Amino acid sequence: MADFHQEPQITTLHGLHEAFDADHYLTRLECKLEAHAKQDHMCLLLPSLFSEISNGDVLDRIVERIAEVRYLRSIVVALGGAPEEQQFREAQAYFGRLARSDCLVRVVWVDGPRVQGLLSELGERGIPTGQQGKGQSVWVTLGYLFARAEANTIALHDCDIVTYDRTMLGRLIEPVANPNNAFQFCKGYYARISPSERSMKGRVTRLFVTPFVDTLSRVMCNQGLPELQRFFEYHRGFKYPLAGEFCFTSDLARGLNIAYDWGLEVATLSQVYDQLTRRQVAQIDLAANYEHKHQELSPDDTSKGLHRMVVDIAKFYLTYMRSHGVPLDDAYVDMLLHTYYQTALTYVRKYSYDADVNDLSYDLYQEEAAAGHFRGFLWDAWMQTKGPQEAKLIPSWNRVAYSFPLVYERLLEAVEADHVSA
Fold it and tell me: Residue 370: which of 198, 202, 235, 237 has the closest Cα?
């Protein structure tokens, strides 16, 4: 069961309901959300690869659970990895079962010629739209939602959650949808334990992001940089910063730049830091455990697996520091990576104690080896980010609409034309 600990900068909403009857709690939660839905248009945005549909065991369960809720007013799928029209049609048929008279369902064919044509036109106008991937798909689909001008509250989660249930969805949305709250952004968190292996997962969060942000916070404090110290303390306050589950208001979302690499989650947290006060930000315990697909370490290939993930995340943080007045050079980054590594080893030892008392399998050597690899990946990130590099961010829709006032109309036409023609 969760504790009562509150982070200094953000509100933590714990899973205290786990002490009581789960069915009764879910009934009351959904009753509240259905009441909120009378004044609040709640939308669920699902970034999905076509491969997740064609291998549908996990996604089948997610769709079945979503079909049981009655408070959503729209469900929009950001479909990626589907260059063929037949794939788009299959996705439409697959997600079409979610449609109801009071709930709009749309699949945004990001790889389709109409949307890609519009992205090309934006590029010709000097508006960057990133590269194909989750970040770009989410950005395009948010634009479609803004073009419809209906959604007030937008929730987003991945489509590979093995342990998905309706409580997870309801808890993700309720803090932002509740009119009695001031929250405009809510981030999910959870434990990551493999039931079959009886072991801890989430290596990038546990062994890289948490100790690295800890390191950066302490270094900024020692060097008399209080604004950057607060920034990294804010990131450190999130229990699972790489969680793909969050909920925000459409007003906030319109003003966010969206990262189109593996830095999407930490870049979003940074954008929220710049846009909101801390009292408008929360994190919520979504589940007693969370299971999804795992990435390979890929120590010899910077373009794949955890190697690419760590590099992209580290590049974002390094670029952020440079853009806020920290003069990075080889010696400085060398200091950071060695300080990070010592911090990570401390965390490894703490995780081993946690695993031992909970009767989990824990390979101390492999954990330390992973931290050693991440130290090397941090240097790879520095090598890639030298020079006049910027964070890989797509401009906010507020900025795009200012530069190209017809963009919402054009995007709405493209998505609706795809829907009708298919």
Answer: 202
Contacts of 147 (CB under 8 A, 6+ apart): 408, 409, 411, 412, 415
Strands 72-80, 193-194: pairing is unpaired
Helices within 55-182 (DSSP H only) = 57-66, 85-95, 113-124, 134-148, 166-177
In angstroms, rounded to a whole number, what is the distance separating the alpha carbons of residues 258 and 222? 31
* Each residue's pLDDT tens digit, 230-281: 999 999 999 999 999 999 999 999 999 999 888 899 999 999 999 999 999 9
What is the H or E stretch that residue 318 is in?
Answer: helix 305-323
Q: How far apart are CA 330 and CA 95, in angstroms?
A: 50
User: In this structure, are residues 204 and 307 in contact, taking their beta carbons and an 8 Å threshold?
Assistant: no
Within 8 A by CB and 6+ apart from 78, the residues are 45, 46, 47, 48, 108, 110, 134, 137, 138, 140, 141
First to last CA, the chain: 48
pLDDT at 293: 65
Spatial separation of the C-alpha atoms in residues 319 and 326, rounded to whole Å:
10
With vertex at residue 123, the alpha carbon angle to CA 311 and CA 263, rounded to the nearest 5 degrees, is 20
| pTM summary value | 0.94
* DSSP 8-state secondary structure symbol assigned to residue 283: E
Q: How confident is the model at residue 2 (pLDDT cuts 50, 70, 90)?
A: low
Structure-token match 């037949």, residue found? 86
* CB-based contact 157:189 (threshold 8 Å): no
**Phi, psi at residue 88, to the nearest 5°?**
-60, -45
183-193 pLDDT, tens digit each: 999 999 998 88
- Out of 158-167, 200-209, 259-268, 382-391, pick the least confident: 382-391
Please give the structure tokens belonging to residue 318: 């390094």
* Averaged confidence pLDDT in the chain: 93
- Distances in Å between the Cα of 356 and the Cα atoms of 69, 221, 351, 363 are 39, 34, 8, 11
Which candidate, 183, 153, 148, places its Cα nearest to that of 169? 153
Contact 269, 187 (CB under 8 A): yes
Pairing of strands 393-394, 258-259: antiparallel
Distance (Å, rounded) from C-alpha 66 to C-alpha 77? Answer: 13
Q: Which residue has the higher pLDDT, 337 or 422?
A: 337
DSSP-derived 3-state class of residue 316? helix
